[in-house]
Structure formats: structure tokens, C-alpha cells
């Protein structure tokens, strides 16, 4: 298997020695070139799981393997795009995309790669601009170009469009689809939006909370581009919604209970 | 343009009041010179080279002291910012040290190094180091964790991570540190020189006092104020503002 998450658990160490278990025993296998969404309510651990694949969080139990090799720390074989663009403000757009390519290969080669990926996200014109001169959507496109420029095996995306307005999000969905088809990258995409997951993915993995776990795994076998008003899309949305409703209520009830106990 | 008129107007009013108090003879001439007399003292001081010599000596002390303060402050700040152990051990004392007015160090410096120029530089170093260290520590603390995470996913760790992400990300705070270190050092310099055996602007000030030359005293105070304001505005504040703009921390 290309990316295999095998019996993975995560426990955060609490102050008094009692750990907080986010999830345990997560099993997930992802094939190469697939676009897989992790969908779930807040607190289900989907972002934590993604960070573990990135190597930014330690794995408490189990193992994560990429092409058979166990992941122990972060590395350029897994590109990540965060909810915040996380660009370096002291560098211009070009230098930001160049950042992971420094000291790898020739300068000319690196610059050609930068040009190629900036073209892919339609930002060639803004090469010399500083990142704070760009809109949120443009910044996120730079972040995508930067992650792709180092040619990772997997692209990890942690609610990358969560902070953008509706229109910008739609445009970026379409761009991402194009990029994905062009680069044939494996993408693991975390979101809490059912529409977004169904619109983009080959496969939607639905996670539940308290404890975090996988509650469903849908293959989305619909032709692209997918329209919002397509019967089959609406059908699938409803199915996922029903599944999640129970989970969301669970969170709400617990929070209300928590509140009441004060 | 309007701003310049306002500021010049204010200066004219102050000078007018000064002249008025002088003309009314509220104080004796010897303790309260007229603006014109102070102006003449300023002119003569520069014309015969006394002030220039004193300024040169002061800037030499300042340059040595401030350079060392920036160096020591940066090293201490990075150490405390990077090592939790070091910060827990010494961080609190740094705040205590930084709250000590620099003139307090003067007796210590004189006893250690006599009435030498080195004693003055010593006071300047102490004046600037702690505020620099505190700002560098803050600078290291304020590196956004999401930038560090992003860099790590691009395979940047350890020393390259420090130099390629943490250092450039700290520069706006570092600039604030520079400006404050300059301001503190400048004050410390005057305190140190005032009690030294010269040369230096502070020494000239005391010398003028000893000879009851109130016109020179006020002239030197004006020089100290003008230099303080000009260096801050023309060099450090400008530098800080430009950096903040470039880092996207300021609306342009």
C-alpha cells in the first residue's frame, strides 16, 4: 500500500500525568494518486492525524508508513498546506516557493521549477510581490505551489480553504482539481465541509468523535466536475450529514453538560 | 509643511517665554541666561572646536559601548529565548537588572576602573545590554509556530531552521531592541561621562557647571536632546518602521 496508517493512536500528555486520548486503533490505507478527504466534526482528531502523517506530531501507538517506510519526522516527501498560508513574510513570492529547493540541485533548475508551479497556480505575475501584498486566496495558492515545488509523494492539506470566502473557495477548488489531474499527486485533505469533501475527493473518510474514530468510508464514484445540484451529490451529502449529525450532537451535549457542571 | 509650521511655532513660543522670564529678571543672570547668550555659547563651543571634540569622544564611547551591548544582549537573548532551562534560571534576574537605572552603575565602574574612559564604556554596555537581551528574547519567543511547522514539513530543521526562519522572523523585534538599546545607552553615556574625567559631552557639562557657565550647561543639554531625537528619528525609528513595513506588520 502507498500510504498505510496502521492501528494508530494518539494520546496527549496531560499535566497531572493523565493523558488525553484523541483516538486509537485508526486503520487507513490510501492508494497512490488518490484524492482522499478526512471529514469530521471538530475534536475528532482529523488534523492531528494529518500532522502525524506529516511527521509534525509523534505517533503514540501503531505506525504510519509511506511506501513501506515508517514516518518518524517531517520531511520534504510530504508537502503540507495549512489553514493559514504560513508563508515567510520577509521573502517575496518567488523566494517563498524557492525556500524548500535551496541547496538541492542547481539554482537554474530550482528557478525553473518555481516558475512552473507559479504558472500552475496563475501567480507568475506576482513573483516579485511580498506575500502580505496578496489576498488570502492568492497566499494559499503560493503555499500550494511551494508544497508542490519540492515534488512530494503526498500532498497533505489541513482545511486549506477554511479561512477563505465562498467565491474564492470555489475558484480554488477548481484550480486544485486541475493541479491534481496535472500532477497526479496523492492528496490527503482534511475538511469539516461535507460539500467540499464530496466535490473534490475520490474517497471520503468520515471520522467521529469522543473517542475519535473512523465511522464511514465512502467511495465517491462520480464524474468530475461535480455540480452542487447533481442528484447523486445531494444524495451522498445527505447520507454523510445523517452520519455526522449524531456525532455533532454528541459534542454539543457534552459541551453543554460541561458548561452546566460549572 | 503644516507640521513644520506648528513645530517651529511652538519653539518660537517657548523661546519667547524664556526671553520674557529673563527680561523680567526673576532669576539672577548667572543662573538664568538669555536665549541669545545660550545661542552664542553654542556657536562659540562649535567654533572653537570644544563641543566637536567632546562629541567625538562621546560618540566613540557610545559606539564601543553600544556595539558590545548589542553583541552581549543578542547572545544572552538568544540563549534565554532558545533554552527554557536558561530562561527559568536567569530570566527573572534579567528583568531586575534591566530596571536598574544606569547611573547606579557609575560608582561601581569608577571603583573598578577608576576615572577612565573604560569606566564610561562599561556603564554604557550595562545600560544597553539588558534591554537588548529582553527584546531579543521576546523576538525569539514571537516566532510564529506555524512558520516553524511549515519549514519543518519542507525538511528544514536544527541550525538551518534557526538561521532561515527564526532569525529573519525575529528581525522586527530585534530592531525594536536596537532602538531601545541606543536610547538606554545614550542615557547611560551621559550619566557615566558626567562623573568621569573626560573627555565627552557629559564631562563638558560638569566642567561648565564647575565654572558656573550656565549658558554652556544649557547649550550642552540642547545638544544632547537634539542628538537623541535626531538619531532616534533619522536612524532607528526609520529602520524599525521600514522593517515592519517590509515584514507586513504595518499598513503602508
From TrEMBL, chain B:
Keywords, in A-Z order: Cell membrane, Membrane, Transmembrane, Transmembrane helix, Transport
InterPro entries on file: MetI-like, MetI-like_sf
Main location: membrane
Subcellular location: Cell membrane
Domain ABC transmembrane type-1, first and last residues per copy: 55-235
Pfam families the UniProt entry points to: BPD_transp_1
Membrane topology: Multi-pass membrane protein
Gene3D superfamilies recorded: MetI-like
Domain of life: Bacteria
Family: Belongs to the binding-protein-dependent transport system permease family.
Protein name per Swiss-Prot or TrEMBL: Sulfate ABC transporter permease
Species in which this protein is naturally found: Halobacillus faecis
Amino acid at each position: 500500500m502507498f500510504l498505510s496508517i496502521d492501528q494508530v493512536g494518539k494520546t496527549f500528555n496531560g499535566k497531572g500525568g493523565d493523558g488525553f486520548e484523541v483516538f486509537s486503533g485508526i486503520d487507513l490505507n490510501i492508494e497512490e494518486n488518490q484524492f482522499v478527504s478526512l471529514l469530521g466534526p471538530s475534536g475528532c482528531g482529523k488534523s492531528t492525524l494529518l500532522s502525524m502523517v506529516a511527521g509534525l506530531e509523534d505517533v503514540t501507538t501503531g505506525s504510519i508508513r509511506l511506501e513501506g517506510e515508517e514516518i518518524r519526522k517531517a520531511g520534504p516527501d510530504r508537502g503540507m498546506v495549512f489553514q493559514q498560508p504560513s508563508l515567510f513574510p520577509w521573502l517575496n513570492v518567488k523566494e517563498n516557493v524557492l525556500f524548500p529547493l535551496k541547496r538541492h540541485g542547481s539554482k537554474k533548475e530550482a528557478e525553473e521549477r518555481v516558475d512552473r508551479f507559479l504558472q500552475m497556480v496563475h501567480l507568475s505575475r506576482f513573483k516579485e510581490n511580498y506575500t502580505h501584498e496578496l489576498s488570502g486566496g492568492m497566499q494559499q495558492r503560493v503555499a500550494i505551489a511551494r508544497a508542490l515545488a519540492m515534488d512530494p509523494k503526498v500532498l497533505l492539506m489541513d482545511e486549506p480553504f477554511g479561512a477563505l470566502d465562498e467565491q474564492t473557495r470555489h475558484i480554488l477548488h477548481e484550480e486544485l482539481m486541475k493541479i491534481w489531474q496535472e500532477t497526479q499527486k496523492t492528496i490527503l485533505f482534511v475538511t469539516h465541509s461535507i460539500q467540499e469533501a464530496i466535490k473534490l475527493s475520490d474517497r471520503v473518510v468520515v471520522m467521529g468523535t469522543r473517542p475519535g474514530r473512523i465511522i464511514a468510508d465512502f467511495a465517491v464514484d462520480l464524474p468530475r466536475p461535480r455540480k452542487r445540484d447533481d442528484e447523486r451529490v445531494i444524495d451522498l451529502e445527505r447520507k454523510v450529514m445523517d452520519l455526522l449529525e449524531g456525532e455533532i450532537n454528541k459534542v454539543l451535549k457534552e459541551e453543554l453538560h460541561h458548561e452546566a457542571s460549572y | 509643511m503644516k507640521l513644520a509650521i506648528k513645530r517651529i511655532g511652538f519653539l518660537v513660543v517657548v523661546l519667547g517665554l524664556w526671553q520674557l522670564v529673563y527680561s523680567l529678571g526673576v532669576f539672577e543672570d548667572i543662573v538664568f541666561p538669555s536665549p541669545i547668550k545660550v545661542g552664542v555659547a553654542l556657536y562659540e563651543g562649535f567654533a572653537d572646536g570644544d563641543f566637536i571634540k567632546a562629541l567625538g569622544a562621546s560618540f566613540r564611547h557610545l559606539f564601543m559601548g553600544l556595539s558590545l551591548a548589542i553583541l552581549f544582549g543578542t547572545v544572552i537573548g538568544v540563549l534565554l529565548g532558545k533554552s527554557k532551562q536558561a530562561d527559568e534560571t536567569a530570566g527573572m534576574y534579567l528583568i531586575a537588572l534591566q530596571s536598574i537605572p544606569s547611573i547606579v552603575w557609575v560608582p561601581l565602574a569608577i571603583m573598578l576602573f577608576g576615572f577612565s574612559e573604560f569606566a564610561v564604556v562599561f556603564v554604557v554596555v550595562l545600560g544597553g545590554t539588558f534591554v537588548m537581551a529582553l527584546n531579543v528574547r521576546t523576538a525569539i519567543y514571537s516566532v510564529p509556530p506555524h512558520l516553524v511547522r511549515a519549514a519543518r514539513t519542507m525538511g528544514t530543521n536544527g541550525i538551518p531552521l534557526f538561521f532561515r526562519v527564526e532569525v529573519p522572523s525575529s528581525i522586527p523585534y530585534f530592531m525594536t531592541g536596537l532602538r531601545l538599546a541606543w536610547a538606554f545607552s545614550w542615557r547611560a553615556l551621559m550619566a557615566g561621562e558626567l562623573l568621569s574625567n573626560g573627555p565627552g559631552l557629559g564631562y563638558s557639562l560638569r566642567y561648565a557647571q564647575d565654572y558656573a557657565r550656565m549658558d554652556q550647561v544649557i547649550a550642552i543639554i540642547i545638544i544632547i536632546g537634539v542628538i537623541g531625537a535626531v538619531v532616534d528619528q533619522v536612524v532607528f525609528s526609520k529602520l524599525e518602521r521600514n522593517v515592519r513595513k517590509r515584514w507586513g506588520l504595518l499598513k503602508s
